[in-house]
Amino acid sequence: MVLDLNEVMTVYWNFDDTSITFEVHGKTKGWVGIGISPSGSMADADIAVGWVKNGKTVLTDRHGGSQNGFPPVDTVQNLELLEGMEVDGYTVIKFRRLLVTCDSEDLDITDDTIKMIFAWGDEDPSGDDLSGDDRHKFTNRGVKKLLLFNLPETDGDAFPEGETHLTFDIFNNNFLVPPVDTYYNCRLFRIPDFPSKQHLVKVEAIIQKGNELNVHHMDVYRCKDNFNTTNVNENTRCFASGMPEDFNSCLSTVAAWSIGGGAFYFPKHTGFSLGTPGDPKVVILQTHYDNPQIRTDMVDSSGYRFTYTPDLRTYDAGIMVVGHGISGLQHIIPPNAESVLDYSECPANCLSETLKAEGHDSINVFAVLLHSHLLAKGMTLRHLRNGTELPYFAKDSSYDFNFQEYRMLPEERVLESGDSIQMICNYNTLKRENVTVGGLSTENEMCQTFVYYYPKMSLDFCETMPNSTSLLRYFGIGRVKVVGDDYIPDLNNLLIQSPPKYENKTVMEVLNSLNWNEESADDFSLAARSMLRVQNCISKREPTAGVKKYVQPPKIDFPLVETNSCSGPDSTTDKTTSSTQQLHGVYLSVVVALLASLQQSFNY
Q1: How far is CA 300 from CA 173, 179, 289, 365, in A?
Q2: CATH no. for residue 30?
Q3: What phi and psi values does residue 132 have, to the nearest 5 degrees?
Q4: CA triplet 430, 570, 586: central angle to 5 degrees?
């Protein structure tokens, strides 16, 4: 992985269940350093610095202080030097460390998003160790966001040997982005006609240079087969009143990418089907532009390159969206709190009915893409079965809005009929003075995950939201009516009719007048977590047959307890906290699952 734009610093790594090995290459004859930082600065960072001087390799384990400054050497050196050399103008340092060292001067290495800081010096230290005089130049440093448990892939690694590959592109075409802070552009494309079934095996977003911070995410959705194609290659504003009616039928996910993400490779035994009667023929490229500076000169031609093969793989893959349905009424996030937890589900009822209709007993999940907006600091995707929480599908306690990457699961996970998925988003709202609601804008929030699996089902969305009546009742609000031209209810256009003390105020005005703090936000979160849910179970662009409109939130009798090798069991049920690999909790969850099964068998 190249760390800087000038390709001076490169890092390679690999890991097992207990340790990780790094190999740092620096285009310098001086020292090289990398570190893991909570904030992207040297403050509180866990740092490794090495050099080769007079034929001897030196490696030091160091840490940042409470502020940016010279990093002192750790009391205990927890780095194992494996190799060091200086050759052809490069310094190469290879070392290994434990994922969890139980050292207060080190940071645990987890499956969270990490900020890897790096720096290099043009010369070796003047003495036996680094000193303040060996400070790097201002330009000889940087930060790179990574998922260390996602090893980078290339075509050579990811494709089966001898497989034939072809490509097609769908791109925006010199689209002049309107001068508004949030704009969703929908552009219609016709998929190429294929002579026979093909498998899509790689999806790569290509962002126009200069627009990397403005193209927030791009999704490709399949449209209905009898779609009116007169608007092919034309642009329209998504979700606006002038959008052609047919565009509302484009719901099935074909591809998803968010800011910071890279190319996605399907596992070698799976591919996304193209070319058969049931496959996409017309798609919409939905591009979310984030334009906080209200630029008038932004022109964009970002889009996707799709790699496909006629050499069919074993399984057809599918993609479904799980989590909290997008709503400006039923997704409420209080302000002025360091942690606000939001819960939503892909309910067992939706999954079971879909599996039954498709003739499957289970599906295999192999990858996920977590997606939220600016307030999210943590996201967890839980796996629930018969009241027992199994090891989670994904968890990121350091979620970063500007780095949303696909996560390949360490092992495929079987999702059985009767299972459910729970999505937890942890929001930090200390910088917000008013209530935030769900919505499409970057300033609104989302709490969703794209789940990649096989064999393919027709399920597009598996989501829940708290019942609106329950939400309004929690705040003591009775009758309301929608006012204004926007027929979609949200907190701003719902005018309260009862009780009299709130009459003629909007719901948003009342909620913003409340005294929100950590305690009141926790109280609301706990109440919303237990409210009756509205289920959004959509297959083939229609509500799935046989599913209930309302479902109860899942009951978890045996939450997952992850073992912490330094301090013993650590329950992660309610707060999204830092963890080691998810496999640490496997054995305990298996035991409690067995106990639950026995309990049901004997009717305890």
Answers
A1: 7, 13, 10, 34
A2: 2.60.40.1210
A3: -60, -25
A4: 120
**7 or 242, which is more confident:** 7
Angstrom distances, CA of residue 423 to CA of 45, 375, 390, 491: 30, 16, 14, 23
Which of these, 355, 512, 351, lies nearest to 429 by C-alpha position?
512
For residues 507 and 475, give the distance between their C-alpha atoms in angstroms, rounded to a whole number.
9
Assigned token pair, 402 = 């500007």
- Both tokens assigned to 2: 């190249």
Look up 216 and say whether it is catalytic.
Answer: no
Choosing from 25, 371, 383, 584, the catalytic residue is 371
Q: Which two tokens stand for residue 445?
A: 């929030």
Rounded Cα distance between 153 and 167, Å, is 18
pLDDT of residue 468: 95
Which of residues 146, 174, 207 is at a domain's end? 146
Residues 21 and 121 in one domain: yes
State how far the Cα of 53 lies from the Cα of 125, in Å rounded to an integer: 8
Q: Where are the beta strands (DSSP E) in 347-406?
A: 362-372, 376-385, 388-396
pLDDT reported for residue 542: 79
- Contact of 176 with 185, CB cutoff 8 Å: no
Taking the C-alpha atoms of residue 381 and residue 386, their distance in angstroms, rounded to an integer, is 17
Q: Is residue 559 within 8 Å of residue 497, measured between CB atoms?
A: no
Q: Is 221 a catalytic residue?
A: no
Catalytic residue, chosen from 183, 184, 289, 343, is 184
Structural domain harbouring 46: 9-146
303 residue type, one letter? G
Place of tokens 């001898």: 162
For residues 39 and 161, state if they share a domain: no
Going by pLDDT thresholds of 50, 70 and 90, the confidence category of residue 536 is very high
Q: Give the C-alpha separation, 537 to 548, whole Å.
A: 9
Amino acid at 21: T
In angstroms and rounded to an integer, the radius of gyration of the C-alpha atoms of the chain is 26
Sheet strand arrangement including 376-385 = 340-346, 420-427, 376-385, 388-396
Domains in the chain: how many in total?
Answer: 2
Strands (E), 443-597: 447-454, 459-466, 480-482, 494-496, 533-539, 542-543, 550-551, 561-564, 568-571
**Separation of alpha carbons 598 and 164, rounded Å:** 51
Domain final position from 146, 179, 206: 146
Judged against a pLDDT cut of 60, whether residue 595 lies above it is answered with no
Going by C-alpha positions, the residue among 414, 371, 417 that lies closest to residue 393 is 414
Please spell the DSSP secondary structure of 62-74, one letter per residue.
Answer: EE--SSSS--PBP
How big, in percent rounded to 5, are the helix, strand and coil portions of the chain? Answer: 10, 40, 45
Instruction: Tell whether the model's pLDDT for residue 39 goes beyond 80.
Output: yes
Backbone torsion region of residue 386, taken as left when φ is above 0, otherwise alpha when ψ lies between -120 and 50, otherwise beta: left
Q: Is residue 25 part of a domain?
A: yes
Using omega within 30 degrees of 0 as the cis cutoff, is the peptide bond preceding 347 cis? no
- Which tokens belong to 199? 């498998």
Could you tell me the CATH number of the domain that includes residue 362? 2.60.120.230
Contact between 223 and 232 under an 8 Å Cβ cutoff? The reply is no
120 shares its domain with 182? no
Is 17:583 a contact under the CB 8 Å cutoff? yes
What percentage of the chain carries pLDDT values higher than 90? 73
